[in-house]
Amino acid sequence: MKYADEEKVAAKVQEIREYGDVAPFITDDLLVKQAKLCLAIEEQVEKYQCCASTVQCWDSVENNYGCATCLAMSMMGDKGKPSACESDITGAVSMLASYLATDTAPALMDWNNNIRENRNKCICLHCSNFPKSFFQKDNIEIECLDVLGSTLGKPNCFGACKGQVAGGDMTFFRVTTDDQKGVMRAYVGEGSFEDETVETKGGVANCYVEGLQDLLKYICKNGFEHHVCFVRGHVADILEEAFTTYLGVEVYRHN
Fold it and tell me: Domains of the chain by range and CATH?
């Protein structure tokens, strides 16, 4: 999609600069390219009146356009338009439900490895596209995808939002489909984001969940995806009631 409106592009470039700390090696040309991508995605979301969206980001956009989509999704999330990466449609549903339950921006993360010997703590992370409101600092770092940048080149992967997720109460939620039975299933629970810094790259959350190992076993044994939606605050009761009582979905409540 081409943009003849230079003022619109310039305004989006300025919005990006104000949204976070752009890495010094990022050229003006890359910022303009990123701004046009943000505008194109936002325009399609508005055109089709999407309450939530998902983007096929890895690695088609980087290969064919030369830019990451994380920043566009992050900025939309903070404006009440949650967006899931990697074409994760049920992830987007999980994000929308969490947003409606809290009126705060959700984030889609990967369940990852344990933190040292604490079996109730783990790292959750992504490249990332977390909304700015999830991070500890007012200004996040806007840089390049680390893993994909090592193969496609950093200039083709600009747009990742990096930093540590701020501490506080959180709710985790995931909707999926059971294709063999033709039904939807979900799990939900509560925990906290810890303030202790995790020394790794991308968007990083230090998560505490009581009985985490039992939860992870349930996720693996029941075919849930590695993505999980997090939202600030404790709203598991709301999400459980909405999906069981009103939508008839089988929900596992992790206590």
Answer: 6-254 (3.20.14)
